[in-house]
Design brief:
alpha+beta, 18 strands, single chain, flat, 27 helices, about 1000 residues
Length: about 1000
C-alpha cells in the first residue's frame, strides 16, 4: 500500500483545505513531519486513518467528540480525500463525517449524515465511481489492505510509546495487544466454547446424579425403617462414585426387605391357623344357641295354638252357615230388584198423571191412546200453515235487509258528494306540495356545497389560533436557546484560552523522571513548567465544550420547531381566510372562530330544513296518486248506489203483495195462539203427556206381576236351604271379604298347628335343649382377636411384598439412570480434560499456558526474530530479542520477552533497557511486528510507514544507526515518515512536512532540498 495524496478540509485544527503530496515526500525514502505542540501533526495521521476506515485511532474517536474544525467557516464542510495504491489498484477515497450545516431554507442548522465516495483510476477511462455506501467502501478497503483499523494503527502508524510500554509490560498486557493485532479471538472462542461445553456437560452430569439421588430418596421412602439402619451415601451431585454407591446401597435395602418379607410370611401362616380354629368354635356355639332357641320358640308356639282352638271351631261353624246362605242369595237379589222396579213404576205413573187434565185423572191406558191419535191428526193439518208462516217471516227479513241497504247507499251517496265537492282544492294543494319539495332539493344541494368549505375554514381558524399561541411559545424558547448558546460559547472560548496559556504545565504533570519526554524525547526534566492561578484542565474545557454543543443543538432544535410551527400557522391562516368564492380576506378582515362557527351553524340549520322538505317529494307524489284513485272510486260508488236504489223499489212492492195473501191463511190456522208454531207446540206437548201416561200405566201393571213371581221363588229357595224364613237366610249371609278373612284365620291356625307338631318331633333340637346354655359371645371375642391378628399379619405381609416389589422397580430404574448417565459422564470427562488443557489448568499442561497464549507465543517468537535483524544493526550487534515461555511468579507462561546482551552474554528482561535502548528496541520490535502482521494479512505490501516520536532519547551515533536502518527500508521501495520535535532531524532529513499553527487554524508546508512550498 502506497499513499499518494491527502486532502484535509475543516478537519481537526485545519480550518481550510490542506493538500499533502506523499509522492514528493516519499521520493527521498525518509521524510520528517514536525511542528509545534498542538499544531496538528497527529491530526495528519488521524486524517489518513479516517480516510481509510472512517474512524480515527483510539480515544480520539470517543463518543461526543467532533472531527470538525472549530476554525472552519460554517459553509465549508469537513472532508478527507485520500489517494492511494493498494493491491495494484489506484483508488481515491473521500469521506465526510456527520456534521451540522446551515439550512438551505430559513435560519439554523441541520445535521448532515456521514458520506463516503470511492473512485478508481482506470488509464483508459480516468476516474470511475465505484460506491457511495459507507459499509461497502469499508469492507472493500479492509479486504484490500488485509488489516483492521487497530492493526493498521499499530503497523503503519507506529506509536513508539505503545511499543515501549509493550517491552516493559507483563504477559497479560502483551497478550491483549497481540490478540488485537493477530486477531486470535477464534482461539479464545475455542477456549470459551470448550469451557461452555464443560459447563453444559457438567450440568447434565449433575442433573443425572440428581435424578439418581431422587430415585434413591424414593428407595429410602419405600424401604421404610430399614433406611434408618442403612442411610443414603453422603455424596453430592457431580461427585465421582455417586452412582456406584447408590447401586450398592439399593442392593442392601433390597436384601433387608426380602428378609422382612420371609418373617411376615411366617407370622401370617400362624395367624391363619389360629383364625380357622376360632372360626370353627364360633360356628359350633352359634349352631347350639340356634337349636336351643328354636326348641324354646317351638314350645311357646304350641301353647299359643292350643289357646286358639275354641276360636278356630267357632269360625269354622260360622263359615259353614254363611256358605249355605249363599244358595238363597240369587233369589233374594231377584226379589229386591222386582220390588225396586215396582216402586219406580208407581212413581212414574203418579208423575205422568199429574200433567193431565182433571177429567183424565182416572182414565185407562186405552182411553189415553185414543185421545193421542186424535191430537196427532190435528197436528198433521197444521203443516201447510207453518210453511206460510215461515215464508211470511222470510219476507219480513228481506224487507229489513232492503231497508238497511237503502240507508247504506244513501250514506255512501252523501259521503261521495261531500268528498267530490272539495276534490279540486285537494288536487291543487298536493301539486303545490310537490313543487315546494323539488325547490327544497335544489336548495339543499346548494347549501351542501357551501357547508363543507365553511367547516374546513372553521377547523383552519381553530388551528390558526392554536398555532399562533404555539409560535409565541416557540419564539420565547428560541430566544432563550440563543442566549444559552451564546453564553456557553463565550464560557468555552474563555476556558480554552486559559488552558492554552498553561498547556506546558499540563504536559509537565505527565513527565516521569527517567522516561522520555513525549515532546522533546529527553529523559531529563530539569525545569518543568508549573500551572498558574486559575488553571483550567482538559476535563473542565471538555465539559464547557459539551455544554456549548448541547446549547447549540438546543438552539437548532428550537429554530427548527419555530419554523415548523410558522409554516403550519401560515397554511392554517391562508385556509381560514379563503372565502366561499375563492376570495382571500385581508389581514384586518380575517374571520374569527366565532363568526365562522355562526356561519357553519346557520348553513347546517338551513341545509337540514331544506333536506327534510326535499325528503317529502316522494310522499307528496304518492299522496296525489292516492287522491286521484280515491276520486275515481268515489264517483263509481255513487253511480252504483243510485242503480241499486231503483231496483229496491220494485222488489219492495212485490213483497208487500205476497205478505197480504199469507196473512189471511195464518189468521185461520193460529186459533187462539199467537202463531201457528205456538199452536203446534201446544198440541205436541199434549200428545207427549198422553203417551207418557199410557206407558206408565202399562209399566206399573207389569212390575206388579214380576214382584209376585219373585216372592214365590224366594220362599222356595229359603226352605230348600234349611232356613225357616227368607229373613233368617238374609241375616246369616256374610260378604265375600268376611268369608275370606274367616278362611284365612282357619287355614293359619291349622298350618301353625301342623308346623308346631313337626318341630316338636325334631330330635336334634330336643337333644340341644338338654345341654347347658350356649355362650356365642365368648366365642365371638376369641374369633375377633384371631381375625385382628390375621389382618395385621396380612397387612404386614402385603406391605413387605409391595416394599420388595417397589424396591426392585426403583432399583431397576436407578440402574437404568446409571447406564444412561454413563456416556454423558464419559463425554464430560473428555470435554473437561480438553477444556482444562486449553485453559492451562490441567496437569497435562506443564507450563499452564492457555491456547490463545500458545498461539500468541508462536507469533511473538516470529516478531522477536524479525525485530532482532534490525535491533542488531541499531545496537551495533549488542542486543538480540528472544521469546521466553518461562513462568514468572504464580503467573502463566507463554508471552515473556527478553534481550540477550552480547557484551555480557546474559539474558535479561527488556524492562532493564535504558531510555535510548528502549526506543530503538521498541522501533525494531514495531518494524518486526509490521513485517509479521503484513505476512499474516496475506502479504499486502506496505510502502508507507509513520514513526511517532522517541528520537530525542538517542545519542548521535545511535541516531545515525537508527536512520541507517530506516533508510535501508528503501531497499524494499518503502518510505518512512518520522514524527518528531528533535531539531537535529531537521538537518539530517531534507524532505519535511511542517505543520504551522495560527489563530485561524493550522496549515502544512512541504519542505524539500530545493525549497519550500505550502
Amino acid at each position: 500500500m502506497r499513499l499518494h495524496r491527502l486532502g484535509i478540509t475543516a478537519f481537526g485544527p485545519f480550518g481550510a483545505t490542506q493538500e499533502i503530496d506523499f509522492d514528493a515526500l516519499s521520493a527521498a525514502g525518509i521524510f520528517l513531519l514536525h511542528g509545534p505542540t498542538g499544531a496538528g501533526k497527529t491530526s495528519v495521521l488521524d486524517a489518513v486513518c479516517y480516510g481509510l476506515y472512517g474512524a480515527v485511532p483510539g480515544a480520539r474517536q470517543s463518543p461526543g467528540t467532533s472531527l470538525r474544525s472549530d476554525h472552519a467557516p460554517a459553509d465549508l464542510p469537513t472532508e478527507i480525500r485520500l489517494e492511494l495504491t493498494v493491491g495494484g489498484r489506484r483508488l481515491e477515497i473521500t469521506r465526510s463525517p456527520a456534521q451540522p450545516r446551515p439550512k438551505k431554507k430559513g435560519d439554523g442548522f441541520t445535521t448532515e449524515k456521514a458520506q463516503s465516495r470511492l473512485r478508481e483510476y482506470v488509464p483508459e477511462e480516468g476516474w470511475r465511481a465505484l460506491s457511495r455506501s459507507n459499509q461497502e467502501i469499508g469492507e472493500e478497503i479492509t479486504q484490500l489492505i488485509g488489516m483492521s483499523r487497530d492493526q493498521f494503527c499499530q503497523v503503519v502508524l507506529l506509536p513508539q510509546g505503545d511499543f515501549a510500554r509493550f517491552l516493559r509490560a507483563d504477559a497479560e498486557a502483551r497478550g491483549k495487544l497481540l490478540g488485537r493485532l493477530f486477531d486470535t479471538r477464534r482461539f479464545a472462542a475455542v477456549e470459551e466454547h470448550l469451557a461452555e461445553l464443560r459447563r453444559a456437560a457438567g450440568t447434565q452430569v449433575r442433573a443425572g446424579d440428581e435424578r439418581i439421588l431422587a430415585v434413591a430418596q424414593r428407595i429410602a421412602q419405600a424401604a421404610g425403617p430399614a433406611a434408618d439402619e442403612h442411610p443414603l451415601p453422603g455424596l453430592q451431585p457431580g461427585e465421582p462414585g455417586l452412582a456406584d454407591a447408590v447401586l450398592e446401597w439399593a442392593a442392601t435395602a433390597r436384601s433387608v426387605a426380602r428378609e422382612r418379607l420371609d418373617i411376615a410370611a411366617c407370622v401370617l401362616s400362624a395367624a391363619e391357623a389360629r383364625q380357622s380354629a376360632a372360626r370353627q368354635a364360633l360356628d359350633a356355639e352359634r349352631e347350639l344357641a340356634g337349636l336351643q332357641q328354636r326348641y324354646a320358640e317351638t314350645r311357646r308356639r304350641a301353647t299359643e295354638v292350643e289357646a286358639g282352638r275354641d276360636e278356630h271351631d267357632q269360625a269354622q261353624e260360622r263359615l259353614r252357615r254363611a256358605r249355605k246362605a249363599d244358595l238363597v242369595a240369587p233369589a233374594l237379589e231377584l226379589r229386591e230388584e222386582a220390588g225396586r222396579a215396582h216402586r219406580r213404576a208407581g212413581a212414574d205413573r203418579d208423575r205422568s198423571r199429574a200433567g193431565l187434565p182433571g177429567e183424565l185423572a182416572d182414565a185407562g191406558a186405552e182411553q189415553l191412546t185414543a185421545l193421542e191419535r186424535r191430537l196427532r191428526e190435528e197436528l198433521g193439518a197444521l203443516d201447510e200453515a207453518r210453511r206460510a208462516e215461515r215464508r211470511s217471516a222470510e219476507i219480513d227479513s228481506e224487507r229489513a235487509a232492503l231497508e238497511r241497504q237503502a240507508r247504506a247507499d244513501d250514506e255512501l251517496i252523501r259521503d261521495a258528494e261531500s268528498w267530490l265537492t272539495g276534490w279540486e282544492a285537494t288536487r291543487h294543494r298536493l301539486l303545490t306540495r310537490i313543487e315546494a319539495a323539488q325547490e327544497a332539493a335544489t336548495r339543499a344541494e346548494l347549501l351542501a356545497g357551501r357547508l363543507e368549505p365553511a367547516r374546513r375554514r372553521l377547523d383552519a381558524a381553530r388551528r390558526r389560533d392554536t398555532l399562533a399561541a404555539r409560535a409565541s411559545d416557540a419564539e420565547e424558547r428560541l430566544a432563550t436557546a440563543r442566549e444559552g448558546a451564546l453564553t456557553t460559547g463565550e464560557t468555552w472560548l474563555r476556558l480554552r484560552e486559559r488552558r492554552l496559556r498553561d498547556i506546558a504545565a499540563e504536559l509537565a504533570r505527565e513527565l516521569v523522571e527517567g522516561e522520555a519526554c513525549p515532546v522533546c524525547g529527553s529523559a531529563g526534566h530539569p525545569e518543568p513548567a508549573r500551572a498558574g492561578d486559575g488553571h483550567v484542565d482538559q476535563a473542565t474545557e471538555d465539559a464547557a465544550e459539551a455544554a456549548h454543543r448541547r446549547a447549540e443543538q438546543a438552539r437548532a432544535e428550537a429554530e427548527h420547531a419555530l419554523g415548523a410551527v410558522r409554516e403550519r400557522y401560515a397554511a392554517a391562516r391562508a385556509e381560514a381566510a379563503d372565502g366561499p368564492d375563492g376570495q382571500t380576506a385581508s389581514a384586518a378582515s380575517e374571520p374569527t372562530v366565532g363568526a365562522l362557527t355562526g356561519l357553519v351553524d346557520t348553513l347546517t340549520r338551513e341545509h337540514a330544513e331544506a333536506y327534510r322538505t326535499a325528503a317529502g317529494t316522494h310522499a307528496a307524489r304518492e299522496a296525489l296518486a292516492a287522491a286521484e284513485r280515491e276520486q275515481e272510486q268515489r264517483a263509481g260508488d255513487r253511480q252504483d248506489a243510485e242503480r241499486r236504489a231503483a231496483a229496491r223499489t220494485s222488489r219492495r212492492e212485490g213483497l208487500d203483495a205476497e205478505q197480504a195473501a199469507l196473512a189471511e191463511v195464518l189468521a185461520r190456522a193460529r186459533g187462539g195462539s199467537g202463531s201457528v208454531t205456538e199452536h203446534a207446540a201446544l198440541l205436541h206437548r199434549r200428545v207427549a203427556l198422553l203417551v207418557e201416561a199410557a206407558a206408565a200405566l202399562r209399566e206399573e201393571e207389569s212390575a206388579a206381576a214380576r214382584l209376585k213371581e219373585a216372592d214365590d221363588r224366594l220362599a222356595d229357595a229359603a226352605f230348600r236351604a234349611g232356613f225357616d224364613t227368607p229373613r233368617d237366610a238374609a241375616a246369616t249371609m256374610l260378604p265375600d271379604s268376611r268369608q275370606r278373612a274367616l278362611q284365612h284365620r282357619i287355614d293359619a291356625w291349622q298350618a301353625e298347628s301342623a308346623a308346631v307338631t313337626d318341630r316338636l318331633a325334631e330330635a336334634d333340637a330336643r337333644t340341644a335343649a338338654g345341654r347347658p346354655p350356649a355362650d356365642p359371645g365368648a366365642a365371638q371375642s376369641v374369633y375377633d382377636r384371631a381375625e385382628r391378628l390375621l389382618r395385621d399379619g396380612a397387612g404386614a405381609h402385603t406391605a413387605a411384598r409391595e416394599r420388595c416389589t417397589e424396591l426392585g422397580r426403583l432399583s431397576r430404574r436407578a440402574a437404568d439412570e446409571v447406564r444412561a448417565l454413563g456416556p454423558v459422564r464419559e463425554e464430560y470427562e473428555r470435554i473437561a480434560r480438553l477444556a482444562g488443557l486449553t485453559a492451562g489448568t490441567s496437569a497435562d499442561n506443564e507450563r499452564k499456558m492457555r491456547l490463545e497464549s500458545y498461539v500468541l507465543a508462536a507469533r511473538l517468537e516470529r516478531v522477536a526474530a524479525a525485530a532482532t535483524a534490525r535491533l542488531r544493526r541499531m545496537s551495533s550487534g549488542r542486543y538480540t530479542l528472544v521469546h521466553s515461555d518461562a513462568r514468572t511468579g504464580g503467573r502463566r507462561a507463554g508471552l515473556g520477552l527478553h534481550v540477550i546482551d552480547a557484551w555480557t552474554g546474559r539474558e535479561r528482561d527488556t524492562a532493564t533497557l535504558s531510555g535510548g535502548e528502549t526506543f530503538f528496541a521498541s522501533l525494531a520490535l514495531a518494524l518486526g511486528l509490521a513485517d509479521v502482521v503484513t505476512d499474516e494479512a496475506g502479504g499486502v505490501r506496505l510502502d508507507t510507514l509513520f514513526i511517532d516520536e522517541g528520537f530525542g532519547s538517542l545519542d548521535d551515533q545511535t541516531l545515525d544507526e537508527v536512520l541507517d536502518v530506516l533508510d535501508s527500508l528503501r531497499e524494499r521501495d518503502r518510505s518512512v515518515g518520522i514524527v518528531s520535535h528533535v531539531a537535529d532531524l531537521r538537518r539530517r532529513i531534507p524532505a519535511q512536512l511542517e505543520v504551522v499553527k495560527t489563530r485561524h487554524g493550522s496549515a502544512v508546508r512541504h519542505r524539500a532540498a530545493d525549497g519550500v512550498s505550502g
